[in-house]
Amino acid sequence: MGFDLYSDREIAAGCANNDRRYQEMLYRRYSPKMYGICLGYAGQRALAQDILQDAFVKVFRNIRQYNGEGSLESWIRKIVTNTAIDSLRKRARTEPYLSESVPEVHSGAVDPGIKTLEAKDILTQIARLPEGARMVFNLYALEGYSHQEIAKRLDISAGTSKSQYSRARQLLKDWIYKQEA
């Protein structure tokens, strides 16, 4: 369809006019990267696909709010991230996904001779994390939020955010070390 021929501004304008061709261009351009973000939060393909679909519905519904300041990708990423968090919060209403207490994780020393892992291997390990630890890890390590910002977004304490992040890092180190051993 040649969506690389159009600028983000042109595509956004076409989407604002509800032109399906431009909506398809926007989706094709950004859905692969945004799916990776969804998968990082959801940890399961089916849930990630649902979140991605919900997020793009919001993108198309609110595209007129994009004013051209900053990149369109960043604007979409923010919607995708918020949609993922909201979706996981809704799922967690029946069971808490973040707790104040963090179980002890035991680990041996990490071998400095560990081979370089591919991104897909790391993403696979991130997807294995418990839901709360995965959310905090994604927000802190991948999205760049502070623990105070994460605490506000997830309605937890900054200390819980820090402990969940620490737990996620330790689990990832353990799993990656075992994978390489």
Can you describe this structure?
This protein has 181 residues and is mainly alpha-helical. The protein folds into 2 domains: 3-92, RNA polymerase sigma factor, region 2, helix turn helix motif (Rna Polymerase Sigma Factor, Chain: A), CATH 1.10.1740.10; 119-180, Winged helix-like DNA-binding domain superfamily/Winged helix DNA-binding domain (Arc Repressor Mutant, subunit A). The protein is built from 8 helices and no strands. Helix 7 crosses helix 8. Mean pLDDT is 83; it is low at 97-114.
Q: TL;DR?
A:
With 181 residues, the protein is mostly helical.
Main attributes?
2 domains, Arc Repressor Mutant, subunit A, mainly alpha, about 70% helix, Rna Polymerase Sigma Factor, Chain: A, about 180 residues
Instruction: Look up the CATH topology of the largest domain.
Output: Rna Polymerase Sigma Factor, Chain: A
Shape verdict:
globular
Q: Which structural category fits the helices and strands?
A: mainly alpha
**End-to-end separation:** 46 Å
Low-confidence stretches: 97-114
Largest sheet: none
Please count the beta strands (DSSP E, at least 2 residues each).
0
* Integer count of domains: 2
- Portion in beta strands: under 5%
| CATH level-4 homologous superfamily of the largest domain | RNA polymerase sigma factor, region 2, helix turn helix motif
What is the CATH C-level name of the largest domain?
Mainly Alpha
Helix content: 55-70%
Number of helices: 8
Along the chain, the helix and strand elements come as HHHHHHHH
Arithmetic mean pLDDT: 83
CATH architectural category of the largest domain:
Orthogonal Bundle
